[in-house]
């Protein structure tokens, strides 16, 4: 039984990395075919990697979903967000060369962003676990405490000029890692969280232009295929049937708004990149 779980875990790791890599390559290729500048195509391809954590968590909580598809969906969503965060930090080096021909900044800026974000998230995450232990497993107390920690993380990350989404993602990761005794309880946002997701969809819809729909449909199609292919290839090893693989890939279709926010640092370096 232990050997079977280890085999499934390895298959899941392979799927997460392969679908992220294939998604990047497929979207990058489509945009290059539409004569998009390579650095812009790379930025959009990185944004296309993760599924939307907000949509996935809302659907899972609303449906009280459990089982193989749900577990795989949450795993791949978290992994995709992590891959995109790291890739966007590395992409900053490319932008430094494109805009300023600065090869030192190309190497050192991504190292600073990744290293300092990791250190900051580790310190706050370790402290958060101790505060949660003192607060006890009471949602009424933990909710304002978690909000305060998130706001403090955002303020410190902004002050140090670190990518806020990456810092928050690492904060969640390290808090979960340090919380061995599970002091952190599951916080439910209820109707407020659902309203937030609805507003996100409305804002995105308001920005759509019919002239861009051909490119958009092409990206949606290749992105879905890129996410589905590794699941079908490793379906047997990961104990996931073809039908469940298709359902998982479909559930990962909503694009991550978090990943779009991660482009802020790139746009700050090259405003023209934001327009494109």
Descriptive overview:
With 276 residues, this protein is mainly α. Helices cover 80% and strands 0% of the residues. The protein contains 13 helices and no strands. α4 (68-100) packs antiparallel against α7 (164-178). It is globular. The termini are far apart.
In helices, the fraction of residues equals: over 70%
Ends: how far apart?
51 Å
pLDDT averaged residue by residue: 83
| Residue share in β-strands | under 5%
Short structural description:
The chain is an all-alpha fold and 276 residues long. The chain has helices at residues 2-33, 38-47, 53-63, 68-100, 103-135, 139-159, 164-178, 190-207, 213-233, 242-251, 257-261, 264-269, 271-275.
Key structural traits:
276 residues, mainly alpha, 0% strand
List the helices and strands and how they pair.
Layout: H1 2-33, H2 38-47, H3 53-63, H4 68-100, H5 103-135, H6 139-159, H7 164-178, H8 190-207, H9 213-233, H10 242-251, H11 257-261, H12 264-269, H13 271-275
Helix pairs in contact: 1-2, 1-4, 1-9, 2-4, 3-4, 4-5, 4-7, 4-10, 5-6, 5-7, 6-7, 9-10
